[in-house]
Amino acid sequence: MMYGSGMPLLYAFASFFCLAIGFFDKRFLLRVCRRPPRYGTALAMLALAVAPWAAFVHLLFGMWMHTHFLTPLITETAGVGDEYADAALSATGGGAANATDSAFSGLLSSGATLQDLLDIANNASAAAQDAAATEYPPILSEISRRTMQTNGFPFFLLAILFIVVNVVVNVVSQFWKAITTFLPCINALPCFREEADYEGVPTFEDAFMMDKLIGAHTYEMREMPMYKKFFFEGKGGFKERAAGDQADPDTPFKKGEDPYN
Protein backbone atom coordinates (compact mmCIF):
# COMPACT_ATOMS: atom_id res chain seq x y z
CA MET A 1 0.00 0.00 0.00
CA MET A 2 2.84 2.39 0.75
CA TYR A 3 4.79 2.03 -2.50
CA GLY A 4 1.75 1.51 -4.76
CA SER A 5 1.11 5.22 -5.11
CA GLY A 6 4.45 5.59 -6.88
CA MET A 7 4.47 2.19 -8.62
CA PRO A 8 0.89 1.18 -9.56
CA LEU A 9 2.07 -2.19 -10.87
CA LEU A 10 2.47 -3.24 -7.24
CA TYR A 11 -1.32 -3.23 -6.87
CA ALA A 12 -1.62 -6.17 -9.26
CA PHE A 13 1.15 -8.04 -7.45
CA ALA A 14 -0.42 -7.31 -4.05
CA SER A 15 -3.83 -8.54 -5.23
CA PHE A 16 -2.36 -11.83 -6.42
CA PHE A 17 -0.35 -12.18 -3.20
CA CYS A 18 -3.41 -11.61 -0.99
CA LEU A 19 -5.48 -14.16 -2.90
CA ALA A 20 -2.70 -16.76 -2.80
CA ILE A 21 -1.79 -16.31 0.86
CA GLY A 22 -5.46 -16.27 1.85
CA PHE A 23 -6.13 -19.55 0.05
CA PHE A 24 -3.13 -21.38 1.49
CA ASP A 25 -3.62 -19.99 5.01
CA LYS A 26 -7.26 -21.06 5.03
CA ARG A 27 -6.39 -24.53 3.79
CA PHE A 28 -3.57 -24.92 6.31
CA LEU A 29 -5.57 -23.72 9.31
CA LEU A 30 -8.68 -25.77 8.54
CA ARG A 31 -7.23 -28.93 6.98
CA VAL A 32 -3.80 -29.35 8.57
CA CYS A 33 -4.13 -27.90 12.07
CA ARG A 34 -5.67 -30.39 14.46
CA ARG A 35 -7.35 -27.87 16.72
CA PRO A 36 -9.53 -25.27 14.94
CA PRO A 37 -7.92 -21.81 15.25
CA ARG A 38 -9.52 -19.28 17.54
CA TYR A 39 -8.98 -15.57 17.04
CA GLY A 40 -10.01 -12.74 19.31
CA THR A 41 -10.93 -9.18 18.49
CA ALA A 42 -7.39 -7.85 18.98
CA LEU A 43 -6.32 -8.69 15.41
CA ALA A 44 -9.34 -6.98 13.86
CA MET A 45 -8.93 -3.91 16.06
CA LEU A 46 -5.24 -3.70 15.15
CA ALA A 47 -6.06 -3.81 11.43
CA LEU A 48 -8.65 -1.05 11.85
CA ALA A 49 -6.15 1.08 13.74
CA VAL A 50 -3.27 0.58 11.28
CA ALA A 51 -5.23 0.99 8.01
CA PRO A 52 -5.83 4.78 8.27
CA TRP A 53 -2.18 5.51 9.04
CA ALA A 54 -1.09 3.22 6.21
CA ALA A 55 -3.27 5.32 3.89
CA PHE A 56 -1.62 8.47 5.28
CA VAL A 57 1.87 7.13 4.56
CA HIS A 58 0.57 6.11 1.12
CA LEU A 59 -0.32 9.74 0.41
CA LEU A 60 3.05 11.07 1.57
CA PHE A 61 5.01 8.54 -0.46
CA GLY A 62 2.88 9.25 -3.53
CA MET A 63 3.54 12.97 -3.22
CA TRP A 64 7.28 12.34 -2.91
CA MET A 65 7.32 10.09 -5.98
CA HIS A 66 5.14 12.19 -8.28
CA THR A 67 6.76 15.55 -7.48
CA HIS A 68 10.32 14.50 -8.29
CA PHE A 69 10.19 16.41 -11.60
CA LEU A 70 9.28 20.08 -11.91
CA THR A 71 5.71 20.79 -13.03
CA PRO A 72 3.57 23.97 -12.99
CA LEU A 73 2.28 25.23 -9.68
CA ILE A 74 -1.30 24.50 -8.69
CA THR A 75 -1.99 28.25 -8.75
CA GLU A 76 -0.95 28.48 -12.41
CA THR A 77 -3.08 25.49 -13.33
CA ALA A 78 -6.14 26.68 -11.41
CA GLY A 79 -5.57 30.37 -12.14
CA VAL A 80 -6.18 31.48 -8.53
CA GLY A 81 -4.14 31.99 -5.40
CA ASP A 82 -0.94 33.23 -7.00
CA GLU A 83 -0.17 35.61 -4.16
CA TYR A 84 -0.40 32.85 -1.54
CA ALA A 85 1.86 30.50 -3.48
CA ASP A 86 4.42 33.23 -4.15
CA ALA A 87 4.47 34.18 -0.48
CA ALA A 88 4.94 30.56 0.60
CA LEU A 89 7.73 29.93 -1.90
CA SER A 90 9.54 33.17 -1.13
CA ALA A 91 9.36 32.53 2.61
CA THR A 92 11.06 29.16 2.22
CA GLY A 93 13.36 30.00 -0.69
CA GLY A 94 11.57 27.76 -3.15
CA GLY A 95 11.09 30.31 -5.92
CA ALA A 96 14.28 29.40 -7.78
CA ALA A 97 13.28 25.77 -8.04
CA ASN A 98 10.23 26.73 -10.12
CA ALA A 99 11.97 29.23 -12.40
CA THR A 100 10.87 27.36 -15.52
CA ASP A 101 7.27 26.69 -14.45
CA SER A 102 5.88 29.40 -16.74
CA ALA A 103 7.67 27.96 -19.74
CA PHE A 104 6.46 24.45 -18.92
CA SER A 105 2.90 25.70 -18.50
CA GLY A 106 3.03 27.45 -21.86
CA LEU A 107 4.34 24.35 -23.61
CA LEU A 108 1.69 22.12 -22.08
CA SER A 109 -1.14 24.52 -22.98
CA SER A 110 0.00 25.17 -26.55
CA GLY A 111 1.02 21.61 -27.36
CA ALA A 112 4.41 20.16 -26.58
CA THR A 113 6.52 17.96 -28.83
CA LEU A 114 8.15 14.73 -27.72
CA GLN A 115 11.46 16.51 -27.25
CA ASP A 116 9.77 19.13 -25.10
CA LEU A 117 8.32 16.42 -22.90
CA LEU A 118 11.73 14.79 -22.61
CA ASP A 119 13.24 18.11 -21.64
CA ILE A 120 10.58 18.59 -18.99
CA ALA A 121 11.15 15.08 -17.63
CA ASN A 122 14.88 15.70 -17.44
CA ASN A 123 14.43 19.12 -15.83
CA ALA A 124 16.15 20.68 -18.84
CA SER A 125 16.43 24.20 -17.52
CA ALA A 126 19.58 26.11 -16.68
CA ALA A 127 18.30 27.12 -13.25
CA ALA A 128 17.43 23.56 -12.26
CA GLN A 129 20.72 22.18 -13.60
CA ASP A 130 22.75 24.84 -11.78
CA ALA A 131 20.89 24.22 -8.54
CA ALA A 132 21.38 20.46 -8.84
CA ALA A 133 25.07 20.85 -9.68
CA THR A 134 25.87 23.11 -6.76
CA GLU A 135 23.98 21.71 -3.78
CA TYR A 136 20.73 20.17 -2.68
CA PRO A 137 17.92 22.66 -2.07
CA PRO A 138 16.93 23.38 1.53
CA ILE A 139 14.39 21.02 3.03
CA LEU A 140 11.74 23.70 3.55
CA SER A 141 12.22 24.93 0.00
CA GLU A 142 11.85 21.41 -1.37
CA ILE A 143 8.73 20.74 0.69
CA SER A 144 7.13 23.99 -0.48
CA ARG A 145 7.91 23.23 -4.10
CA ARG A 146 6.54 19.69 -3.97
CA THR A 147 3.36 20.55 -2.08
CA MET A 148 2.49 23.47 -4.38
CA GLN A 149 3.05 21.60 -7.66
CA THR A 150 -0.01 20.49 -9.62
CA ASN A 151 0.81 16.80 -9.27
CA GLY A 152 1.57 17.05 -5.55
CA PHE A 153 -1.10 19.37 -4.20
CA PRO A 154 -3.92 16.74 -4.19
CA PHE A 155 -1.77 14.42 -2.04
CA PHE A 156 -0.92 17.31 0.26
CA LEU A 157 -4.56 18.38 0.56
CA LEU A 158 -5.73 14.85 1.41
CA ALA A 159 -2.95 14.47 3.99
CA ILE A 160 -3.96 17.75 5.67
CA LEU A 161 -7.61 16.66 5.61
CA PHE A 162 -6.64 13.34 7.23
CA ILE A 163 -4.77 15.11 10.04
CA VAL A 164 -7.62 17.57 10.65
CA VAL A 165 -10.25 14.81 10.79
CA ASN A 166 -8.13 12.72 13.18
CA VAL A 167 -7.51 15.68 15.47
CA VAL A 168 -11.20 16.63 15.53
CA VAL A 169 -12.36 13.05 16.16
CA ASN A 170 -9.84 12.50 18.96
CA VAL A 171 -10.58 15.83 20.64
CA VAL A 172 -14.35 15.33 20.44
CA SER A 173 -14.13 11.73 21.70
CA GLN A 174 -11.94 12.70 24.64
CA PHE A 175 -14.21 15.63 25.43
CA TRP A 176 -17.26 13.35 25.32
CA LYS A 177 -15.55 10.81 27.62
CA ALA A 178 -14.83 13.59 30.10
CA ILE A 179 -18.47 14.73 30.01
CA THR A 180 -19.85 11.20 30.52
CA THR A 181 -17.38 10.64 33.36
CA PHE A 182 -18.55 13.66 35.32
CA LEU A 183 -22.19 13.37 34.19
CA PRO A 184 -22.96 9.64 33.75
CA CYS A 185 -26.68 10.36 33.65
CA ILE A 186 -26.28 11.68 30.08
CA ASN A 187 -26.15 8.14 28.70
CA ALA A 188 -29.55 7.45 30.27
CA LEU A 189 -31.27 10.23 28.32
CA PRO A 190 -33.77 9.04 25.69
CA CYS A 191 -31.85 10.77 22.89
CA PHE A 192 -28.70 8.75 23.65
CA ARG A 193 -30.36 5.45 24.49
CA GLU A 194 -30.08 2.75 21.86
CA GLU A 195 -32.96 0.31 21.89
CA ALA A 196 -33.66 -2.30 19.26
CA ASP A 197 -37.33 -2.58 18.34
CA TYR A 198 -38.28 -5.90 16.77
CA GLU A 199 -41.80 -6.89 15.72
CA GLY A 200 -43.33 -10.34 15.87
CA VAL A 201 -40.55 -11.93 17.94
CA PRO A 202 -41.92 -14.68 20.22
CA THR A 203 -40.54 -15.47 23.64
CA PHE A 204 -38.09 -18.33 24.09
CA GLU A 205 -40.78 -20.51 25.72
CA ASP A 206 -43.24 -19.98 22.88
CA ALA A 207 -40.54 -20.62 20.26
CA PHE A 208 -39.46 -23.81 22.05
CA MET A 209 -42.99 -25.17 22.46
CA MET A 210 -43.96 -24.37 18.86
CA ASP A 211 -40.74 -25.90 17.47
CA LYS A 212 -39.57 -22.65 15.92
CA LEU A 213 -35.96 -23.01 17.04
CA ILE A 214 -34.12 -24.10 13.91
CA GLY A 215 -30.48 -24.28 12.93
CA ALA A 216 -27.44 -25.96 14.46
CA HIS A 217 -27.86 -27.72 17.79
CA THR A 218 -24.23 -27.35 18.81
CA TYR A 219 -21.23 -25.09 18.29
CA GLU A 220 -18.97 -28.03 17.45
CA MET A 221 -17.40 -27.17 14.08
CA ARG A 222 -17.40 -30.80 12.97
CA GLU A 223 -21.18 -30.84 13.22
CA MET A 224 -21.59 -27.84 10.92
CA PRO A 225 -22.43 -28.90 7.34
CA MET A 226 -20.41 -26.04 5.85
CA TYR A 227 -17.25 -27.06 7.75
CA LYS A 228 -17.34 -30.85 7.36
CA LYS A 229 -15.20 -30.82 4.23
CA PHE A 230 -12.42 -28.95 6.05
CA PHE A 231 -11.74 -31.70 8.59
CA PHE A 232 -9.89 -34.91 7.84
CA GLU A 233 -10.58 -37.78 10.23
CA GLY A 234 -9.08 -40.67 8.27
CA LYS A 235 -10.60 -43.04 5.71
CA GLY A 236 -13.16 -44.34 8.18
CA GLY A 237 -14.48 -40.88 8.98
CA PHE A 238 -15.67 -39.68 12.35
CA LYS A 239 -17.26 -42.60 14.22
CA GLU A 240 -18.97 -42.80 17.56
CA ARG A 241 -17.40 -44.49 20.54
CA ALA A 242 -19.58 -46.87 22.51
CA ALA A 243 -20.36 -46.06 26.12
CA GLY A 244 -18.36 -49.04 27.37
CA ASP A 245 -15.27 -48.23 25.31
CA GLN A 246 -14.42 -44.86 26.82
CA ALA A 247 -11.09 -46.13 28.18
CA ASP A 248 -9.99 -47.62 24.87
CA PRO A 249 -7.63 -45.10 23.23
CA ASP A 250 -7.95 -46.77 19.82
CA THR A 251 -11.71 -46.34 19.65
CA PRO A 252 -12.98 -43.14 17.99
CA PHE A 253 -14.57 -40.51 20.14
CA LYS A 254 -18.26 -40.11 20.72
CA LYS A 255 -20.00 -37.14 19.15
CA GLY A 256 -19.97 -34.16 21.45
CA GLU A 257 -16.92 -35.37 23.37
CA ASP A 258 -13.78 -33.24 23.36
CA PRO A 259 -11.16 -35.32 21.46
CA TYR A 260 -8.29 -33.23 22.83
CA ASN A 261 -8.76 -34.11 26.52
Alpha-carbon distance between the two ends: 44 Å
Tell me the Rg in angstroms.
32 Å
Number of helices: 10
Globally, the shape reads extended
**Uncertain regions: pLDDT < 50 for 5+ in a row?**
234-245, 249-253
Residues in β-strands, percent: under 5%
| Annotation, overall tally of beta strands | 0
* Arithmetic mean of pLDDT: 71
Count of distinct structural domains: 3
Largest sheet: none
Helix content: 40-55%
Judged by helices, strands and strand pairing, the structural class is mainly alpha
H-E order:
HHHHHHHHHH
Description:
Residues 241-261 are annotated as: Disordered. Keywords: Membrane, Transmembrane, Transmembrane helix. Residues 251-261 have a biased composition (Basic and acidic residues). The chain crosses the membrane at residues 6-24, 45-65, 153-172. The protein folds into three domains: 3-66 and 160-188, no CATH class; 74-151, no CATH class; 205-261, no CATH class. The protein is mostly helical and 261 residues long. The protein contains ten helices and no strands. 53% of the residues lie in helices and 0% in strands.
Can you give me a brief rundown of this structure?
The protein has 261 residues and is mainly α.
